[in-house]
Specification:
Layout (H helix, E strand, L loop, with lengths): L1 H13 L19 E12 L2 E11 L2 E6 L9 E4 L4 E4 L1 E6 L45 H9 L2 E6 L6 E4 L1 E4 L6 H4 E3 L4 E4 L14 H19 L8 H8 L5 E4 L3 H13 L5 E3 L8 H6 L4 E4 L5 E2 L4 H4 L4 H9 L3 H7 L4 E4 L7 H12 L4 H8 L1 H6 L16 E4 L10 E5 L17 E7 L2 E8 L6 E6 L2 E10 L2 E8 L2 E8 L5 E7 L5 E8 L4 H12 L25 E9 L6 E10 L2 E6 L8 E4 L4 E4 L1 E6 L28 H8 L2 E6 L7 E4 L1 E4 L6 H4 L7 E5 L21 H24 L7 H10 L4 E6 L2 H13 L6 E4 L3 H11 L2 E4 L17 H7 L4 E3 L10 H10 L5 H6 L3 H6 L17 E4 L10 E6 L2 E5 H27 L4 E2 L15
Parallel strand pairs: 1-4, 1-5, 6-7, 11-12, 12-13, 13-14, 14-16, 15-44, 27-30, 27-31, 32-33, 36-37, 37-38, 38-39, 39-40
Antiparallel strand pairs: 1-2, 2-3, 5-17, 7-9, 8-11, 9-10, 17-18, 19-20, 19-26, 20-21, 21-22, 22-23, 23-24, 24-25, 25-26, 27-28, 28-29, 31-41, 33-35, 34-36, 41-42, 42-43
Helix pairs in contact: 4-5, 9-25, 17-18, 17-19, 19-20, 20-21
Length: 981
């Protein structure tokens, strides 16, 4: 019985498949072929190979493999003695055979806010129901390019939308019918941060909006799966059906890899993530995700730096990345990050091998390379029939002349589903090398390069290069030479690649004979060549962050003693002269005169001023997005999702004495997104910058921006369009949040809504509002709305008419965060005055001076000084507007904002009175670590100049060596403001 079962299994595995498709274009014949490849070195997997083995294939699958394989009598036998057989590569991420979606152009029309499809999810960019099988069309031209690059199967999908639908595994075999070409109809589920091109639906307009939408979709899918929804939703049904498929997320950069992984972790999903090839910049953070990556190798070309003035526009970071990108794969492998390779982002698969060889030269292990192209993508796809040559697997394999990743190796054939695809005829001899060509006693230098039928020859006579025409086909050489108007025509059949010979004719018709003897290189030259091949190219060091002025190592907490300084404490206007401060474990440990402590670093504060670090209550630096403008309420989005730790403005702020900032959402809508409050720890990742147990804040906005009066003539669809409409938005949303919260607390089943959860936190006094504001009538309005729902507005920011309502703000309990002297930059600012902050202060309002601007934030000390001129604040009162007062507004005054024992060591040492235009921050300390030092800064700038010169020299060497280059380009960084979209 057991034998019978085994026979049935083998018949099912290797037996003939019954075709049931009619053939209407000719005679239908069915022929089963068995082929045996003998005497090869066969790699079953990247780590398991058999020498002098036989590979037996039948009906597109591996029948057997080994040293003692019995070959059936009817088998075709191919002797591949001395050659190597590898599994064909697996392309795990592609849109092969799927037409590029046409962008839904919405120019000249009003925005689209609602979905265009009925019966699907409320957002058109969520499309998990998409099945590429319905639109797949085999592309023979692209298939050939992938086959020539070594690939046998492709996992393809529709690369469109935030949720994109499933993947489709197809063979690249051009001889298969469509029915047999599809190996698996549903392999993977695909996601991204990018919107669908097929719809013009407005929301989301930002990456943080895309992240919020993903979260809400997952929550809704769970709600739907539990049978709670009353409607039928084909998108959510599809998502729930595909949740057990491998989930592939197109991130595209190391920052977005971390962001995607964050969402996955929240919902217990381990994404496989498509990276951007820059993972080396934050390798420790990448490693902690535990994600399997898919990594492109679209290394950038060297920049053409031959023109000094054009070269000056190239950023050091771009120069570095040209140099560092080829080392990415080696860095990932060294850190045991599992990853597959992809041709994604390459203009053509032709450059795939060249780039891979470049990575290998930079230290990437060849076995790891083969794994990344075979077994790892197979594991991602959960398919054990591809990426290997074990018995029962698909007969997808490469035949090569040697080690597949050796630059001298020729790839002869790529078999897909048991069908031969010739890349280079393996019967054509490899003639490459240099020869001494002798024609009737005259010597010439012949150099043959290339492979297969594409081999070409060049002729020199001494130092003179002669015009010639060389062809090699079916083992016949034809060579014509123009030697100073004497034309020679040669022909010869090749029997031995070491010595070539034949006959010919000169231009007088006389018969001639010729021989070409291959030149042998000396052992010394070989050794030198081998040594140079094994020497990895120089890679400049990665800094933290990997930009100009980044840190060679991340700053660490130290015990620091600051001696004999003038200390502005920001505590009750207290000034301490000739005072020491001792910092230990990131905290202010001692304050006094002549402190006797052991410190790892001592700073002489004689003649210097020491203050708490500046806090900017309203900033838009250090973020990848500022506005989610797709709806009139976007309380579901969070700036914490898009903190950008690599923003150079962090370093510039530190140089201006700033240690903490609140990154606010913009003013695109009445109810904006949640804030991120961060410490400016230059070199740390985003997660480590965000305050632990951070107070919860959200941005609201009033005025021109939210009612879209300055957005253009087409922006007339979204409610509100008037100031009174803005009030109604608040009332409506807070009423809905109140009812939502009541249902949640009642214990009844409820659909979790991230937006209403956030607004309910405000009602429950768990989240604070920072509100963009100008006009007194609207300021009064929002305070009344808040009081109606029994909470208060924490901070009015901008608040340029605050002087008109300061008494009401005091009574309500609201603070004011304002500009020192901005006015008249738009209509609703016409009544602004520079005495605003002083008037609010004297009414008892907690007042802070903020920036809302990347440039101004670097000189907030000078902005604070303006309050002395405009309104007569004392120096200490002025200084509190950028230290303890913003700390109070942010509910951080128990941690930072003043010099007090036990508080965080966020401290600045100034060269002069901090309110002076001559004052420079010499040391900026955050949590007891020095993140800016003016002397170190000078050394950094000198080192960067030398590094830039080195990289320019490297790129010049590339250009002179004939490598392709790209034109210099300047990248313009967008400086975000409230109204930036």
């Amino acid at each position: 019985m057991k034998k019978l079962s085994l026979l049935l299994f083998l018949w099912a595995l290797f037996g003939y498949s019954q075709e049931y498709f009619p053939i209407n274009t000719g005679v239908k014949t069915s022929k089963s072929t068995t082929t045996a490849f003998t005497n090869a070195t066969v790699y079953l997997t990247p780590t398991k190979s058999i020498k002098k083995a036989t590979l037996l294939i039948k009906d597109g699958k591996v029948l057997n493999v080994g040293k003692k394989v019995k070959i059936p009598n009817d088998a075709s036998v191919v002797d591949v003695k001395g050659k190597f057989i590898y599994p064909s590569f697996v392309e795990v991420y592609s849109n092969f055979g799927i037409a590029e979606p046409k962008r839904n152009r919405n120019f000249g029309r009003s925005p689209q806010y609602d979905a265009s499809r009925k019966g699907y999810y409320w957002n058109d960019h969520i499309r998990p129901e998409t099945n590429p099988h319905t639109e797949f069309k085999f592309d023979g031209k692209k298939a050939k390019g992938l086959i020539d690059a070594g690939f046998g199967v492709v996992n393809t999908h529709s690369e469109d939308g935030i949720m994109q639908g499933n993947g489709l595994l197809v063979s690249l075999n051009p001889k298969s019918s469509e029915a047999y070409r599809v190996l698996s109809a549903k392999t993977t589920n695909h996601l991204s941060f990018s919107k669908s091109k097929k719809t013009a639906q407005n929301y989301p307009t930002s990456k943080m909006g895309a992240m919020a939408l993903l979260r809400q979709t997952y929550l809704d899918a769970e709600w739907y799966a539990n049978g709670n929804a009353e409607n039928k939703d084909l998108s959510l049904e599809a998502l729930n059906k595909k949740k057990n498929l491998p989930q592939i997320f197109n991130a595209g950069s190391f920052l977005d890899v971390l962001r995607a992984d964050k969402i996955g972790d929240e919902f217990g999903i381990q994404y496989t993530i498509l990276g951007g090839g820059d993972e080396f910049e934050r390798i420790n953070d990448i490693k902690k995700t535990n994600a399997t990556l898919i990594v492109p190798i679209n290394f950038r070309k060297a920049y053409d730096v031959s023109n000094k003035f054009l070269a000056d526009v190239i950023s050091l970071r771009d120069m570095r990345k040209w140099n560092q990108e080829p080392s990415n794969l080696a860095v990932l492998a060294k850190n045991n990050v599992r990853f597959a390779l992809t041709t994604h982002k390459l203009k053509s698969p032709k450059s795939f091998k060249a780039n891979l060889m470049k990575a290998i030269k930079h230290g990437f292990n060849k076995t790891k390379a083969l794994e990344a192209l075979t077994t790892i993508p197979a594991k991602i796809l959960q398919n054990d029939k591809i990426g290997n040559l074990n018995t029962g697997s698909y007969a997808n394999f490469l035949i090569t002349s040697g080690d597949i990743f050796d630059s001298k190796t020729t790839v002869y054939e790529n078999w897909t589903l048991g069908n031969k695809n010739i890349i280079n005829d393996m019967n054509i001899k490899d003639l490459s090398g240099s020869y001494t060509l002798t024609i009737d006693g005259k010597n010439y230098d012949l150099t043959i390069s290339g492979k297969g039928n594409k081999q070409k020859g060049a002729i020199k006579k001494g130092e003179q290069k002669l015009k010639s025409n060389f062809s090699f086909k079916d083992n016949w050489i034809q060579l014509s030479i123009n030697d100073n108007s004497s034309f020679l025509r040669l022909v010869g059949k090749i029997d031995n690649s070491a010595t070539l010979n034949g006959t010919g004719e000169d231009n007088n018709g006389n018969a001639i004979t010729w021989t070409a003897t291959k030149n042998s290189t000396s052992k010394d030259k070989k050794k030198k060549s081998n040594k140079s091949d094994k020497t990895a190219p120089e890679v400049v060091a990665v800094s933290y962050p990997n930009v100009g002025l980044g840190n060679a190592t991340k700053p660490r907490q130290q015990s620091i003693l600051i001696k004999n300084a003038t200390v502005w404490t920001s505590e009750n206007d207290e000034v301490l002269n000739n005072t020491d401060i001792y910092i230990k474990d990131g905290k202010i440990s001692k304050i006094g005169k002549n402190l006797s402590v052991r410190a790892s670093k001592t700073i002489d504060g004689t003649g210097k001023f020491v203050t708490a670090g500046i806090i900017d209550e309203h900033s838009h630096i250090a973020t990848s997005a500022v506005n989610e403008a797709g709806h009139n309420s976007t309380a579901e989005v969070s700036i914490e999702d898009v903190v950008d730790p690599d923003d150079i403005n962090i370093y510039r702020n530190l140089a201006g004495g700033v240690t903490s900032i609140q990154i606010l959402h913009g003013s695109a809508n009445p109810i904006g997104g949640r804030s991120a409050i961060i410490k400016l720890k230059w070199g740390e990742n985003a997660e480590n910058m965000i305050y632990k147990n951070s107070p919860k804040f959200i941005k609201f906005a009033l005025g021109e921006n939210v009612k879209q009066s300055n957005w253009g003539d087409l922006q007339t669809i979204r409610f509100p369009q008037t100031r009174m409409g803005v009030e109604q938005v608040f009332i409506d949303y807070f009423q809905r949040a109140k009812e939502y919260d009541a249902k949640k607390k009642s214990g009844q089943p409820y659909r979790k809504d991230i937006e209403l959860e956030t607004l309910a936190e405000i009602i429950n006094k768990e989240r604070f509002i920072s509100c963009h504001s100008y006009v007194q009538s609207e300021i009064n309005m929002l305070m009344k709305v808040a009081e109606k729902f029994n909470f208060s507005v924490n901070t009015f920011t901008h608040i340029l008419e605050g002087y008109k309502v300061a008494d009401k703000m005091k009574e309500h309990g609201a603070g004011g965060s304002t500009f020192a002297d901005w006015w008249a930059y738009k209509y609703e600012v016409n009544d602004a005055i520079p005495y605003n902050s002083a008037i609010m202060h004297r009414q008892g309002v907690t007042v802070a001076i903020n920036s809302d601007d990347a440039e101004m934030s670097r000189r907030l000390n000078q902005e604070a000084a303006k309050t002395v001129k405009y309104g007569g604040l004392t120096e200490q009162e002025a200084w509190r507007t950028v230290t303890i007062n913003p700390a109070k507004l942010l509910h951080l005054d128990d941690r930072t904002g003043s010099i007090k024992i036990g508080k965080d060591a966020d401290i600045v040492v100034w060269s002069d009175n901090p309110l002076s235009v001559y004052a420079k921050a010499e040391h900026t300390i955050v949590d007891g670590a020095i993140y800016f030092d003016i002397d170190t800064d000078k050394k950094k700038r000198k080192a960067l100049k030398a590094e830039r010169a080195k990289l320019i020299a490297m790129m010049m060497e590339e250009k002179i060596g004939g490598a392709p280059t790209q034109a210099p380009s300047r990248k313009h960084k967008i400086l975000f403001h409230c109204d930036t979209e």
